[in-house]
Amino acid sequence: MLVNSLERRHFLFLAAAAAAAGSRLSALARADEEQSGKPEYTRQTFVYKMVGNLEIRADVYRTAAVEVQPSILWLHGGALMMASRGLVPPMRQLERYLASGYTFVSIDYRLAPETKLPAIVEDMVDAYAWLRTSGPSLFNIDPDRIAVMGMSAGAYLAQLAGIRLRPRPRALVSLYGYGDITGPWLSRPNPGFNGTPPISRERAYEGMTGPAIAGSPESNDPRRSTFNVYCRQSGLWTNEVSGHDPLKERSWFADYEPRMKVASRYPPTILLHGESDQDVPFEQSVLMARALKKHRVEYDFVSNPRWNHAFDYAKTDPALQEAFDRISHFLDEHLHQKTSPK
Fold it and tell me: pLDDT value at position 34?
């Protein structure tokens, strides 16, 4: 099936990132790095949860260090509808976290529309519980020093982790995330996705009515991208992800909009967002920053007028080094201290 230019634009960054991730993961299987100055590390795959016969997996990246390490729980992007745990940060980021003494854990979670939002969030909660209870014995992590990090829809889940996970994570990292899912940007037709002929519901649902899946087989699966574009064109993303109508059932979403639930005990958070983002509005992070400031939650906010969605995958942007430095400093400050913050 041919995809139109809008659909192609929408999943282009997933396709490129997934292809790059695939080649990197092949190298990881050798369990060593030939380039000097880079950390040697391994990747192990675990099943952290079973739902019927469905195995939901996590990839654990770790150096050969013997000491107990803090960890980063990574939540991939993809509109909660596509991609998988293989969509990890750019290698220069991932290697930096590993070299800084962190164990990096990238998880799959069940995807919409086959699975609805409560069960998707349940997977995140269960992954965090698994990391805390099994991580110390399986790969030598400190269960009390965990940060949650995500990109796009994964950053939405990371922000949601601040109100759902107990004990609270030490820190949150949100890369072009969002704190509400009932606002007009998702619950109304999005003009930015209507530059081509509309996608019919029949076409959108082709190949999308099977059993639950955890991680799409192809991160750049055009069927799932087509479904997402249909949802954004029609203003039905929230309906299709949640199974509820935000225009008629607003109260149902109270526990699924992290910005509205920010309080003084919300975890320290760093937000990164491009002011030119054409997918998730920059305003989403601006509003989250205001909520954090209002409740006196420690936070940092990194932005750039040139950055679009998935800006961190750019190869030649000199501003990225400062952004990565800010993330590293934030994580170091909150993960390397042994005692829990007050």
Answer: 41
| Nearest residue to 56 via CA among 82, 79, 84, 28 | 84
The reply to whether 39 falls in a domain is no
The predicted structure's pLDDT at residue 8? 44
Is the residue at 174 inside a domain? yes
Q: Is residue 328 part of a domain?
A: yes
Residue 7 has pLDDT above 70, yes or no: no
d(CA 299, CA 296): 9
**Cβ-contact 90, 129 below 8 angstroms:** no
Rounded distance, CA 30 to CA 43, Å?
9
Which tens digit of pLDDT belongs to each residue from 302-337?
999 999 999 999 988 999 999 999 999 999 999 987
Indicate whether 134 belongs to any domain. Answer: yes
Q: Which CATH number do you get for residue 185?
A: 3.40.50.1820
Which of 53, 4, 13 lies closest to 309 in space, CA to CA? 13
Residues contacting residue 206 through CB under 8 Å, at least 6 positions apart:
223, 226
Main-chain phi, psi angles of 128, to 5 degrees: -65, -40
**Structural domain count of the chain:** 1
Tokens of 204: 């959108």
pTM: 0.90
Question: Domain range holding 63?
Answer: 5-33+44-335
Torsion sign across C-alpha atoms 261, 176, 189, 116 = negative
**% of the chain at pLDDT higher than 90:** 79
Q: What is the pLDDT of residue 151?
A: 98
Q: Which helix (H) or strand (E) holds 74?
A: strand 69-75
